[in-house]
Amino acid sequence: MSGRAAENGQPVIQVTGLTKRFGDKTVVDGFDMTVPKGAIYGFLGPNGSGKTTTIRMMCGLLTPDAGDGHCLGYDILTESRRIKERVGYMTQRFSLYEDLSIRENLDFMARMYRLDRRRQRVGQALEELGLADRAGQLAGTLSGGWKQRLALAACLLHEPALLLLDEPTAGVDPKARRDFWDEIRGLSDRGVTVLVSTHYMDEAVQCDFIAYIAYGTKLIDAPAAAIPRQVGLATWKVEGPGLAELARTLAGAPGVEQIARFGAELHVSGTDAAALGATAQARAAAGPQRWTRQESGLEEVFIHLMAQSRDNFARDNAAPDGGAAGRRA
Amino acid sequence: MTAAFSFARFLAVLVKEFIQMRRDRVTFAMMIGVPILQLTIFGYAINTDPKHLPTLVESNDDGPITRALLAALENSAYFDFRGTVAGEAEASRALRSGEAIFVVVVPPRFERDLVRGERPAILLSADASDPTATGGAIAALSGIVDGALAASLTGPLQGLAARPPAFQILVHRHYNPAGVTSFNIVPGLLGTILSMTMVMITAIAIVREAERGTMETLIATPVRPAEVMLGKILPYVLVGYVQTSVFLALALTAFGVPFAGSAAAFLVGLNLFIVANLALGFLFSTVARNQMQAMQMSFFYMLPAILLSGFLFPFSGMPGWARAIGIAIPNTHFIRIVREVMLKGAGLSDILPELGALAAIVVVITALAMLRYRQTLD
Ligand SMILES: Nc1ncnc2c1ncn2[C@@H]1O[C@H](COP(=O)(O)OP(=O)(O)OP(=O)(O)O)[C@@H](O)[C@H]1O
Ligand SMILES: [Mg+2]
User: With CB atoms 3.0 to 4.6 Å apart as the test, which of A67, A268, A311, B297 could cross-link to B284 if both were Cys?
Assistant: First the structure.
């Protein structure tokens, strides 16, 4: 039972052509992915791009309309029950029982996976969470961040070989997020494979690989470090006085596609490096600011990518609403 | 490695449901309170002995025996004489309009015929549309009359008293010829209360998981449909027991309903009925998208369960299509079982056909529910 994949060196997740339609809307379209054992795979994409849907298909919660694949060596179409035994899935929305106490929730999960030494495991999980003295508190009365931490603890109870984490750190404070990622690292070092969706760039940087999805289609899939080069985005850093005024005048200038404020700096990026370079040199000569060419960071890259696919499915969603409003008027 | 049915996971669901049930105080209180409340409210209807019922008299004879008889009726406190009527047309108008529930007609030459030993008939016309209202009075009638006659037929007429009935009383029940007895409301009410809570609460209990999003965690575990279904249903079987106990205790003591038959037969029927309702609730919950819909479906189901099950209207009086629907409703069979067992003293063997019908319904509903239960979020 303990992971056929582990023994013969197969990838932990290998899916091809995954497609999911809701009505006539194709939400995930021909999605391929290969996740090696022990990797931390970041899953990025704008809101509504199909991340949650893809993750749900991988662990058998949704049936794909097309495509197939394996998870931990089990067929995602026919052996989802076996996959479920070895996967820890943390849902995007808190989905433990709010009217059960913290301990009761953990107890429930431990029972569901038929774990031995249940009391001991639950007690240990409570200790590690730092919730041992509040174990009797109803889960629904926890703060948002604590709910996330409880949900993570719950999906780790049965020591899964694969973790599917859907925006696990949304609403979690920076210290807890750091602890959280330390734990993910630790798990990964012990051979646990992690697929994690996130909107935080500082978390994307921590991933070994990143898959970027928009409109249900995967646009990028590469080691995290290789992505900026792959996208081919040139970036100039601007420091000095009057940045707000400069940002206004830069909009629409040749080669400038994106202007992002980073604290006391302005990052000006574009895919046409030559045009952008010319603009930069001209402005550097004309103004008091200091312009420096720099390597594009993941953050610039993803702002760039997301700007291109800003409102995923927004048009599809807007159409019926607009129609209804029209009829009402 | 994956067992077909894991007792541990079933237990997990069971424990969780019990905890949630305990925490949801309002629902819990309602489940226990409903039988008490309903029976108390219906208790007035179950009151088998309503007195002072408006009565009109058409007396075509004026002899002392007639007068003694009418006086005895009035003294019994069941009949409250409100006046007289002349002729059958007037009498039936009074019954129809509700002005009177009874009309007593003493025929002409009643006393003469009585003395001649011709056994004349006194006609008691009753509005039996509400059998609980008239049942007690009608039942008491022969006793009242016997008493009155024993006092009147003295001296030379003593010979008449010795012979069995010197005259007859013809009771004409209008509007409800079957004359369903008042106790009949108990089986129907028990069935209705159980259905109402069992169907609705199970239907809601599962839809709630989907609505709150907890379904996603639940089905992301290796849990099987049977484990979820049994784990969710069993706590409510116990609730059904509690409701039944409360209801029966009240019905037997406060309202004097008899329990003539076999307790074992009753229990078997009760269990089958409860399971049928829970399975039905589970089925609804696999169709409903939110708790509101689950509620509405349960209410919608309650209508035929009340109207076509023989609870309010005699089953045999319904048209064929209505009987066909009624046969498929668990309440129909449960009402018959309880009626047979409690009122007619039936044993297990007497109710086998009804048990068989209930079992068939359970099998069909359960199969449908298991088929409908989604193990995915599709
Ligand atoms: N059950 C469903 N029925 C119909 N449409 C759905 C359903 N679930 C998701 N969708 C649609 O599928 C698309 C992708 O949704 P999904 O939740 O996978 O996006 P996501 O990438 O996880 O977004 P986010 O970053 O906001 O979590 C959205 O347009 C959404 O409206
Ligand atoms: Mg999502």
Answer: B297
- CATH code given to domain A5-227: 3.40.50.300
Amino acid letter, B228:
V
- CA torsion B153-B158-B162-B164 (nearest 10°) is -40
- Pair B53, B124: CB distance under 8 Å: no
Interface mutation target, options A112, A150, A155, A165, chain B, most CBs of B under 10 Å: A112
Q: Quick check: B16 and A97 CB within 8 A?
A: yes
A216 in contact with ligand 1, CB cutoff 6 A: no
**Of ligand 1's atoms, which has the minimum distance to the CA of residue A56?**
18
Which pLDDT does position B165 carry in this prediction?
Answer: 62
- CA-nearest residue to A164 within chain B is B220
- Identity of the residue in A81, A97, A108 whose CB atom sits nearest the CB atom of B222: A81
Residue ranges per domain, chain A?
5-227, 232-326
- CB of A51 shorter than 6 A to ligand 1: yes
Q: What residues contact residue B280 under an 8 Å CB cut-off, 6+ apart?
A: B199, B202, B301, B330, B365
Query: Residue A144's Cα: distance from chain center in Å?
Result: 18
Q: pTM of this prediction? A: 0.75
Going by the DSSP 8-state scheme, the letter that residue A241 receives in this structure is S
Q: What is the pLDDT of residues A25-55, one digit of tens each?
A: 999 999 999 999 999 999 999 889 999 999 9
Q: Which of A89-93, A294-298, A299-303, B85-89 has the highest mean pLDDT?
A: A89-93
Nearest to A111 among B12, B375, B376 (CB): B12
The residue ranges of chain B whose pLDDT is under 50 are 1, 176-180
**Domain boundaries A232-326, corresponding CATH code:** 3.30.70
Task: Indicate whether residue A92 lines ligand 1 (CB < 6 A).
Answer: yes
